[in-house]
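User: Large ribosomal subunit protein bL28m, Dactylellina haptotyla:
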Amino acid sequence: MPPRIPQTLLPRPTTTSTILSLLPTSTSRTFTTTAPLPGKASKQKLDQILSKAPVYPYKIKPTFKQSWFGLYASKHIQFGNNIPDKEYTITRRRWYPNIKHKKLWSFGLGEWVTCKLSTNVLRTIDKVGGLDNYLLSEKPARLKELGPWGWELRYRLQCSKSVQRKYQEERVAMGLITKEQMMEENVQRGIAKGVQEAEKVVRQVPIKVKDRPMEFAERWSKSAQVSKVLFGEPWRARKYVGRETGRERQRKFDAEKRRMERTEAVMARQKAQRNIDKQTARMQAQVEENEKMERLTKVLAGRKSAPGRETVVEPEAAPAAPPTGEQQV
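Assistant: Predicted structure for Large ribosomal subunit protein bL28m:
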């Protein structure tokens, strides 16, 4: 900043012209020669988005401008009051929609799309099966909730070659054109399968030796080569003995899993053998009961078939009388 002149050295202004003469004549900053960078307003960003797509058929709300640049599904900021239970001091407050920053894959565009979207939209995308199906829906309510940014993204997706081929196949299925006409039109418009857009190839970067995870033996041998150890041998032992790599943990997990599978198999065989033994015992008891009943039936049949023999039913013996006093003596 320029040096300030003490107020005591400045003459006291007496007229309006004198006051105006003391004011700075230039509004630019005096401590730099670089012009301030003009910031891009939300309206300029919106005009830039809408210039890349057809006319948006719905009204754009002038409030809550961040919803212009994401998939908010008509979610808007809400206002209300905080009213406590005891002290009735009403204060204003606001509720914002639950917005997430996500990267979603678009099969039509062949790229990841980074967008701001509400949790309601995220749930709908999972339900319909992807971002492309959400954007290409023809329902008026879906088109209205896309917003300007979603409308421009939908137009870009419709202009992709894969979606154009899909529209052509739907026309053939409805009988509007023949398959030969579809192939000719695809070649003329440059959307045939032979000239489709090249997929992005992600180059596999080889893992460097220093970034490769080391086994325990390799770590231990490397630790023994350290020339300067601050706390001596126990420090190396504490640092390296207790650690294990992902492969070692995976081997332990697989061994434990195999042991549990063997234990479960043995328990299942034992349970099956117990069930077989119980069933065999029940069948043996039933066979013995049937044999016993057959023997009793034969005995009763032999008694009835014998001549002159009648079955005499002996009377039941009377209960013995209680002893008298003399008998007790």
